[in-house]
Design goal:
- By secondary structure, the chain is an alpha/beta fold.
- The chain has helices at 48-54, 81-94, 107-118, 142-149; strands at residues 10-16, 19-26, 31-35, 58-62, 100-105, 123-129, 172-174, 207-209.
- Strands 1-2-4-3-5-6 form a six-stranded mixed β-sheet, sandwiched between helices.
- Helix 1 (48-54) links the parallel strand 3 and strand 4 (58-62).
- Helix 2 (81-94) crosses helix 3.
- The N and C termini lie far apart (104 Å).
Length: 219
Protein backbone atom coordinates (compact mmCIF):
# COMPACT_ATOMS: atom_id res chain seq x y z
CA UNK A 1 0.00 0.00 0.00
CA UNK A 2 1.28 3.45 -0.88
CA UNK A 3 2.11 5.82 1.96
CA UNK A 4 0.74 9.28 2.60
CA UNK A 5 3.87 11.41 2.89
CA UNK A 6 1.93 14.68 2.69
CA UNK A 7 -0.58 13.77 5.40
CA UNK A 8 -0.49 15.77 8.59
CA UNK A 9 0.52 14.28 11.90
CA UNK A 10 -2.40 12.65 13.73
CA UNK A 11 -2.57 12.90 17.51
CA UNK A 12 -4.40 10.17 19.43
CA UNK A 13 -5.05 9.01 22.99
CA UNK A 14 -5.28 5.25 23.57
CA UNK A 15 -6.05 3.21 26.66
CA UNK A 16 -3.11 1.44 28.30
CA UNK A 17 -2.11 0.02 31.68
CA UNK A 18 -0.72 3.48 32.47
CA UNK A 19 -4.25 4.91 32.12
CA UNK A 20 -3.86 6.73 28.83
CA UNK A 21 -1.04 7.11 26.35
CA UNK A 22 -0.64 9.94 23.91
CA UNK A 23 0.79 9.11 20.48
CA UNK A 24 1.40 10.76 17.14
CA UNK A 25 1.22 8.82 13.88
CA UNK A 26 1.81 9.41 10.21
CA UNK A 27 1.64 7.22 7.10
CA UNK A 28 0.14 3.82 6.37
CA UNK A 29 1.66 0.38 6.11
CA UNK A 30 3.56 -1.88 8.53
CA UNK A 31 3.63 -0.40 12.02
CA UNK A 32 6.84 1.11 13.41
CA UNK A 33 6.64 2.07 17.09
CA UNK A 34 9.06 4.81 18.21
CA UNK A 35 9.99 5.11 21.91
CA UNK A 36 11.76 8.27 23.08
CA UNK A 37 14.44 8.64 25.75
CA UNK A 38 15.00 10.85 28.80
CA UNK A 39 13.85 13.58 29.20
CA UNK A 40 12.09 13.74 25.85
CA UNK A 41 8.67 13.13 24.26
CA UNK A 42 7.20 12.07 20.95
CA UNK A 43 8.57 15.32 19.53
CA UNK A 44 12.10 13.89 19.37
CA UNK A 45 10.85 11.73 16.43
CA UNK A 46 9.34 14.66 14.48
CA UNK A 47 11.85 14.25 11.65
CA UNK A 48 11.66 10.44 11.49
CA UNK A 49 7.85 10.33 11.29
CA UNK A 50 7.55 11.84 7.79
CA UNK A 51 10.61 9.93 6.57
CA UNK A 52 9.15 6.58 7.64
CA UNK A 53 5.74 7.53 6.24
CA UNK A 54 7.32 8.34 2.89
CA UNK A 55 9.07 4.95 2.95
CA UNK A 56 5.73 3.17 3.26
CA UNK A 57 5.35 2.64 7.01
CA UNK A 58 2.82 3.59 9.63
CA UNK A 59 5.08 5.50 12.00
CA UNK A 60 3.86 5.99 15.57
CA UNK A 61 5.72 7.94 18.27
CA UNK A 62 4.41 7.70 21.82
CA UNK A 63 4.74 9.72 24.99
CA UNK A 64 6.07 7.17 27.48
CA UNK A 65 4.08 7.12 30.73
CA UNK A 66 5.13 10.02 32.89
CA UNK A 67 5.98 12.24 29.89
CA UNK A 68 4.08 14.68 27.70
CA UNK A 69 0.33 14.15 27.51
CA UNK A 70 0.42 10.56 28.77
CA UNK A 71 -0.73 9.57 32.26
CA UNK A 72 1.67 10.17 35.13
CA UNK A 73 1.16 7.60 37.89
CA UNK A 74 2.23 8.80 41.30
CA UNK A 75 3.63 5.50 42.59
CA UNK A 76 7.31 5.06 41.82
CA UNK A 77 6.91 1.31 41.22
CA UNK A 78 4.49 2.14 38.37
CA UNK A 79 7.52 2.89 36.19
CA UNK A 80 9.04 -0.57 36.26
CA UNK A 81 10.30 -2.01 33.00
CA UNK A 82 7.54 -4.63 32.85
CA UNK A 83 4.90 -1.89 33.03
CA UNK A 84 6.56 0.13 30.27
CA UNK A 85 6.69 -2.97 28.07
CA UNK A 86 2.98 -3.64 28.62
CA UNK A 87 2.24 -0.07 27.51
CA UNK A 88 3.95 -0.78 24.18
CA UNK A 89 1.91 -3.95 23.71
CA UNK A 90 -1.30 -2.02 24.52
CA UNK A 91 -0.47 0.59 21.86
CA UNK A 92 -0.04 -2.08 19.18
CA UNK A 93 -3.36 -3.67 20.13
CA UNK A 94 -5.19 -0.30 20.34
CA UNK A 95 -4.07 0.52 16.81
CA UNK A 96 -5.57 -2.73 15.54
CA UNK A 97 -2.21 -4.26 14.64
CA UNK A 98 -0.84 -7.72 15.40
CA UNK A 99 2.87 -6.89 15.29
CA UNK A 100 5.26 -3.99 14.93
CA UNK A 101 8.88 -2.99 14.63
CA UNK A 102 9.93 -1.18 17.80
CA UNK A 103 12.69 1.43 17.78
CA UNK A 104 14.08 3.11 20.89
CA UNK A 105 16.40 6.01 21.56
CA UNK A 106 18.44 6.57 24.75
CA UNK A 107 16.43 5.17 27.69
CA UNK A 108 13.81 4.13 25.15
CA UNK A 109 16.35 1.65 23.74
CA UNK A 110 16.14 -0.36 26.95
CA UNK A 111 12.34 -0.35 26.75
CA UNK A 112 12.43 -1.40 23.10
CA UNK A 113 14.90 -4.24 23.77
CA UNK A 114 12.84 -5.54 26.71
CA UNK A 115 9.67 -5.35 24.62
CA UNK A 116 11.18 -7.52 21.90
CA UNK A 117 12.60 -10.00 24.43
CA UNK A 118 9.38 -10.40 26.40
CA UNK A 119 6.97 -10.29 23.45
CA UNK A 120 8.76 -11.63 20.36
CA UNK A 121 5.39 -12.49 18.82
CA UNK A 122 4.35 -8.83 18.90
CA UNK A 123 7.66 -7.11 18.14
CA UNK A 124 9.21 -8.89 15.17
CA UNK A 125 12.21 -6.54 14.91
CA UNK A 126 13.94 -4.01 17.13
CA UNK A 127 16.18 -0.98 16.58
CA UNK A 128 18.35 0.63 19.27
CA UNK A 129 19.79 4.15 18.99
CA UNK A 130 22.52 5.66 21.21
CA UNK A 131 22.33 2.87 23.83
CA UNK A 132 23.56 -0.63 22.88
CA UNK A 133 21.86 -3.79 24.05
CA UNK A 134 22.98 -5.04 27.47
CA UNK A 135 22.23 -8.71 28.24
CA UNK A 136 20.73 -9.70 31.61
CA UNK A 137 23.39 -9.32 34.29
CA UNK A 138 25.28 -6.70 32.29
CA UNK A 139 28.19 -7.08 29.87
CA UNK A 140 31.31 -9.01 30.84
CA UNK A 141 34.05 -6.88 32.47
CA UNK A 142 36.70 -5.85 29.93
CA UNK A 143 39.49 -7.31 32.07
CA UNK A 144 38.07 -10.83 31.87
CA UNK A 145 37.78 -10.72 28.08
CA UNK A 146 41.30 -9.33 27.77
CA UNK A 147 42.62 -12.05 30.08
CA UNK A 148 40.98 -14.78 28.05
CA UNK A 149 42.42 -13.37 24.81
CA UNK A 150 45.99 -13.09 26.14
CA UNK A 151 48.33 -16.05 25.33
CA UNK A 152 49.36 -18.11 28.30
CA UNK A 153 53.02 -18.51 29.20
CA UNK A 154 54.55 -21.91 28.67
CA UNK A 155 57.95 -23.51 29.04
CA UNK A 156 58.46 -23.13 25.28
CA UNK A 157 58.41 -19.34 25.55
CA UNK A 158 61.78 -17.71 24.73
CA UNK A 159 61.61 -15.74 27.99
CA UNK A 160 60.91 -18.72 30.23
CA UNK A 161 63.07 -21.64 31.29
CA UNK A 162 61.84 -25.01 32.40
CA UNK A 163 63.08 -25.89 35.89
CA UNK A 164 64.02 -29.33 34.56
CA UNK A 165 66.36 -27.88 31.91
CA UNK A 166 69.95 -27.68 33.28
CA UNK A 167 72.10 -24.68 32.54
CA UNK A 168 74.89 -25.24 30.03
CA UNK A 169 78.33 -25.67 31.55
CA UNK A 170 81.44 -24.20 30.01
CA UNK A 171 83.72 -26.72 28.30
CA UNK A 172 86.31 -28.12 30.71
CA UNK A 173 89.51 -30.05 30.18
CA UNK A 174 91.53 -31.84 32.74
CA UNK A 175 95.23 -31.58 33.29
CA UNK A 176 97.92 -29.73 35.17
CA UNK A 177 99.49 -26.53 33.99
CA UNK A 178 99.92 -22.84 34.67
CA UNK A 179 96.24 -22.13 33.83
CA UNK A 180 94.90 -24.81 36.21
CA UNK A 181 91.67 -23.86 37.97
CA UNK A 182 91.22 -24.30 41.68
CA UNK A 183 87.50 -25.25 41.37
CA UNK A 184 86.71 -28.97 41.74
CA UNK A 185 86.28 -31.24 38.75
CA UNK A 186 82.80 -32.23 37.43
CA UNK A 187 81.28 -35.41 38.88
CA UNK A 188 82.26 -37.56 35.85
CA UNK A 189 85.97 -38.41 35.80
CA UNK A 190 87.98 -37.01 32.91
CA UNK A 191 91.13 -38.30 31.31
CA UNK A 192 94.37 -36.43 31.91
CA UNK A 193 96.04 -34.73 29.00
CA UNK A 194 98.45 -36.89 27.11
CA UNK A 195 101.89 -35.49 27.81
CA UNK A 196 105.11 -37.43 27.22
CA UNK A 197 106.89 -35.48 29.96
CA UNK A 198 104.03 -35.67 32.51
CA UNK A 199 105.24 -36.92 35.92
CA UNK A 200 102.21 -36.28 38.06
CA UNK A 201 99.76 -39.01 38.90
CA UNK A 202 96.51 -39.13 36.82
CA UNK A 203 94.50 -38.93 40.01
CA UNK A 204 95.93 -35.51 40.78
CA UNK A 205 94.53 -33.96 37.61
CA UNK A 206 92.69 -30.67 37.99
CA UNK A 207 90.06 -29.00 35.81
CA UNK A 208 90.88 -25.99 33.70
CA UNK A 209 88.77 -23.94 31.37
CA UNK A 210 89.77 -24.19 27.74
CA UNK A 211 90.99 -20.81 26.55
CA UNK A 212 91.32 -19.68 22.93
CA UNK A 213 94.83 -19.47 21.45
CA UNK A 214 96.63 -16.22 22.03
CA UNK A 215 96.70 -13.79 19.15
CA UNK A 216 99.64 -11.54 18.45
CA UNK A 217 98.82 -7.87 18.23
CA UNK A 218 99.72 -6.11 15.01
CA UNK A 219 102.92 -4.14 15.26
Amino acid sequence: MQSEPSAALRHRIVEAPAGRLHLVEQGTGPLVLLVHGFPESWYSWRRQLPALAAAGYRAVAIDVRGYGRSSKPEATDAYRMLDLVEDNVAVVRALGEESAVVVGHDWGSNIAAASALLHPGVFRAVGLLSVPYAPPGGPAPPTSSARSAAPSRSSTSPTSRSPATPRRRSSLTCGAGSRASTRPCPPTPCQPRASPTRTSSPTAASCVTASPPARSLPG
